[in-house]
Amino acid sequence: MEIEKRRGSYARRTAETDVSVVWVLDGTGECRSDTGVGFLDHMLAQLAKHGLFDLEIKARGDLDVDGHHTIEDVAIALGRALDSALGDRKGLSRFGDSLVPMDEALARVSVDLGGRGRAVVVAELSELGAGGFRGEMVGHFLDSFATEARITLHADVIRGENDHHKIEALFKALARALDDASRLDPRRLGSVPSTKGVL
What we know:
Elements: E1 7-13, E2 17-24, E3 31-34, H1 38-51, E4 54-61, H2 68-86, E5 95-102, E6 105-112, E7 118-122, H3 135-149, E8 152-159, H4 163-182
Parallel strand pairs: 3-4, 7-8
Antiparallel strand pairs: 1-2, 2-4, 5-6, 6-8
């Protein structure tokens, strides 16, 4: 008998953007992302592939103004879709961390799916960033995502020279950490991983 896959979705429409996200936690690493921001699509593909999530993201935004609104609203919708997929969070491993190298860059991400949204991001990135994804937007993306997903996220670029490598290492580490934290622990099935009894 096939186990039902955990799945969440969210759609966000504003005067600036129109975004929809589907997140399947128990996936195979498939990603269909069309945000209009090529480097963001590349990072979302890394998140799916290395976390073994199936993601479908469609976004239309005011890119003629700037990429900010689109990147921000994709992060918000992505976080809310993950929160939906996690459901009541019973049986989760809850914590996950990963250390990922990419050439000269090294990134570390730790997550807690404990229901409190917070991100701490330490990453020295240039203003230009990579591929239209400005350096300042990396922290903003991760903070918006963590807040809406109701997770605690610590992300650090330990070293690196190339912004593309540093950002990609961060997203790969995020994928691996989320994969570990969202796994169901057979010893915890039916119970919330907290002494409070609720997350």
